[in-house]
Amino acid sequence: MAMMICVMAQGASRSPKNVVLIMADDLGFGDLGCYNCDSAIHTPNIDRLAEQGVKFTSFHVNPVCVPSRVSLMSGQYTLDCEERPHAGKTGIYQNVTLLPQYLQKAGYVTGGFGKWHLGNGEGDHPVDRGFDEWFGFYGGWIRYKYEQSKETHIRHIKAEPHMQILYDGKEKSDEPWEHLTDLLTDKAMGFVAGNKDKPFFLFLSYNAPHGWLYHETHPEYSATDEWVEKVRAKYNLPDETWEQRNLIDYIAVTEHMDARIGDLLALLKKQNLDQDTLVVFMSDNGAITPEFYYTLAASGSNGGLRAGKAVPYEGGVRVPMVISCPSAIAANETVSGFTMGVDILPTLLDFAGIPVPENNGDHPLRGISLMPYLKQQQKPLPQREALFVNNGMSGICVMKDPWKLVTLKSRVGANKDLTTNEVPTDGWLLFNLDDDIGERKDLSRQYPEKTEELLDFWKDYNRGIGRKIRGGVGTND
Ligand SMILES: [Ca+2]
Asked: Checking DSSP bridges between strand 167-168 and strand 133-137, what pairing results, if any?
């Protein structure tokens, strides 16, 4: 009896198993301190999260926002559950259950803040897709600051009318803000404070750093003056060309985001939720890098990996990801085995004690729970085939660690003058990432059987999804 009371008392004192998923937008593999950042950026709060938990060094996603977020929210390849992975207008098939829907159904209070980019039609809104509370935007990006130039306003309203509007639930919000990173973090912290006694799921989806910064011409798309001044004072970086000024801006928006993540983590600690809350931090795709996007103000780093955002080379698809939960998983560990964005959904459900479904929509669940691999005595991860695509299917890679097959229909975002960044416009290239993580040596002729094996996976996949993929390369018809 005494033991029972003891157990019950212990059970009653345990905090709920909360889940916090923080996503950065276009943050590269080389942009964080804990990933041996090769620029001046310091990210002490995300680094501490990695020290308290597990850091993944071979975590892969689709190379651009929409398909990456489709896989995150569904546990499926983007082509399993979306007609054409582009623009975020069509949404995910309604017979596919999304991450917040699973958690909501299991009794979680669910809150999403920031970038959605998964459709804004009837039934596609975050509130229709499992979020009790939503504050954010539908499009790929929104200005960081409330005030904006007339020119920018007109340009973006023409391009995508919903791009520059924030929504509170389904209603347009007229609330002014100083900087989006602050606004979203404050909303997220309000959600945590208001739900500290219930199990909650928080999705904090920053627009930072997103890389397309224009401190000089469009200050509404840049860091705050305060953070720019901090960075200038701290690092004494050269500040003459627009590229140099843009790097300062990039560092400022990234460090600003890190500082606000620190505030959120401090709130969890203050509320005694830090030990039992699973926190995931990840990026949705690789960074926009200056050597590849020479016409854009691009200052991200993919840590020496080839190419960047929108391209299925490692610079586009290998991104930072850390998971922390002091009471449930190991501290200060690194998982170097192959993992991917579709694994997040089953991992979070598994942590929350929700049965991981075998299927979602019309297909078997593509992801696996990573929970068994987050202990100190790590099991080796299974070898799996994997598929990553960009918008409009103009770039595809098929992976079976350490092998990788790449094809590109066009020079997506490539600098045509840079021969070092030449990309194929037909055929498939084969790389062995164990020996050649920079993807420089095509082995497709040397290992035709391996090329065939990965191509067969792609062809079988095409047949298996039972419909013609439009606009793609390498399709089997
Ligand atoms: Ca992105």
From this structure: antiparallel
Token pair 């950042």 in the structure block, residue: 37
- What 3 state SS string does 266-293 have? HHHHHCCCCCCCEEEEEECCCCCCCCCC
In this prediction, residues 11-32 reach a mean pLDDT of 84
pLDDT tens, position by position, 150-162: 666 666 666 665 6
CA–centroid distance, 349 to ligand 1, in Å, is 24
Question: Taking the model in full, what pTM does it have?
Answer: 0.92
- Looking at domain 385-464, its CATH architecture is 2-Layer Sandwich (3.30)
Residues of the chain with CATH 3.30.1120.10: 385-464
Question: What is the whole-number distance in angstroms between the Cα of residue 132 and the centre of ligand 1?
Answer: 24
Distance 449 CA to ligand 1 centre (A): 35
Rg of the chain in Å (alpha carbons): 22
Note whether 289 and 31 are within 8 A (CB).
no
pLDDT higher than threshold 90 for residue 318 = yes
**What's the CA-to-centroid distance between 438 and ligand 1, angstroms?**
22
Using the mean position of ligand 1's atoms as its centre, give its distance from the Cα of residue 64 in Å: 5
Look up the CATH superfamily of 18-373.
Alkaline Phosphatase, subunit A (3.40.720.10)
pLDDT in tens, 361-392: 999 999 999 999 998 777 899 999 999 988 76
Q: Where in the chain is the domain with CATH 3.40.720.10?
A: 18-373
154 CA distance to ligand 1 centroid (A)? 23
Q: How remote is the CA of residue 115 from the centroid of ligand 1, in Å?
A: 10
